[in-house]
Structure formats: structure tokens, C-alpha cells
Design goal:
single chain, 176 residues, alpha/beta, 7-stranded mixed β-sheet, 30% strand, globular
Length: 176
């Protein structure tokens, strides 16, 4: 995607299997003809996924993280890559900020975090994802896949496909 990334102390240079899984899933969706204009990246780390989506989809992205260092690092990366006009950053837990909520319904939401926080986010992911919107979930060990998927199925999502790399799973789902 031709992005310049400074990882500093925040998670995410774009090389981890979970991030690669998300990028491959995005690429697969675009090749299938999906178009995204309003995207969220929950747990954005250095902003890799937000920047890739903003660039490839020509979309507006809101990116959140609970770690203030991650948000500061993402700000630098977004600026260096000339994406300030398309990416809004917010220091918050999930969607827990009025500026983020005002931007919903998202047609695509990334959440590359861990299984337990993904499960806790399932209800809000459904709430802030538009009808027939997609989600790309990662940070899931293979043995955690069924548990995470069951939380999202219970909240109105249907699995489209799974991407596996090493011991990590990326799940792509559609809101019904």
C-alpha cells in the first residue's frame, strides 16, 4: 500500500500475521467489488489498517485506541503519509467517544485486538456497523475462533470467510 510507518512504542508495523490477515481480507473484499466509504479501525495501534483503508478505498476513517502512545504514533504516521484529511483519530475504548459515535454507521469496521476485547465489543460493533456492513476481526488464536464468532453471530452477523496465517485467524463477517 506504499505506507511509511514509524512504530515507536505502539503496536503495529504491518508485518504481524494478524495485520497481514486484515490487509489480505480487505484486498479480497475489494477484488469482490465491495466499496467502503465510512470505515472504523478499533484498536488502531500505529494506524496501519486505517491508513491502508483510507488510501485504497478513498474512504474516511475514524481510528481509535485506548493507548495514548498509539494515538500519538498514529498521528505522526497519518501526517507523514498525507492522510490527515481522511483519518480522524480518537483516544478512547472502542466506540466510547461522542465524536466516534457521530460518525456511525460504518460500512466497514476493523478490530485487530485480542479475543476477549473482541467478545466484549460484539454488541457495539453491531450497533455502530450499518445494515449489511462488514467487519474484519483479528488478533484471534485459532482455538479462540469459534468463541469469538459465536458472540458476533449472536449479535446479528454472518461469517463471510476466514483467513488463517500461522496460529492466527482473521474473521470477516456481515451484519444482517
Amino acid at each position: 500500500y506504499g505506507l511509511e510507518i514509524e512504530a515507536a512504542m505502539a503496536f503495529g508495523t504491518g508485518h504481524h500475521a494478524t495485520t497481514v490477515g486484515c490487509l489480505l481480507a480487505l484486498d479480497r473484499l475489494i477484488k469482490k467489488g465491495y466499496l467502503f466509504k465510512n470505515i472504523a479501525d478499533i484498536g488502531c495501534g500505529t494506524g496501519v489498517l486505517a491508513m491502508a483503508a483510507a488510501r485504497v478505498c478513498q474512504a474516511h476513517v475514524v481510528a481509535t485506541d485506548i493507548d495514548p502512545v498509539a494515538i500519538e504514533t498514529a498521528k505522526v504516521n497519518v501526517n507523514v503519509n498525507g492522510l490527515n484529511s481522511r483519518i480522524a483519530l480518537a483516544h478512547c475504548d472502542g466506540f466510547n467517544k461522542i465524536d466516534v459515535i457521530k460518525r456511525a454507521g460504518f460500512d466497514l469496521i476493523f478490530a485487530n485486538i485480542l479475543a476477549n476485547p473482541l467478545c466484549r465489543l460484539a454488541r457495539n460493533m453491531a450497533k455502530y456497523n450499518e445494515f449489511e456492513g462488514l467487519i474484519i476481526l483479528s488478533g484471534i488464536l485459532h482455538r479462540q475462533t469459534n468463541r469469538v464468532q459465536s458472540y458476533y453471530t449472536a449479535n446479528g452477523f454472518t461469517r463471510l470467510f476466514i483467513q488463517s496465517i500461522d496460529q492466527w485467524t482473521t474473521i470477516v463477517m456481515k451484519r444482517n
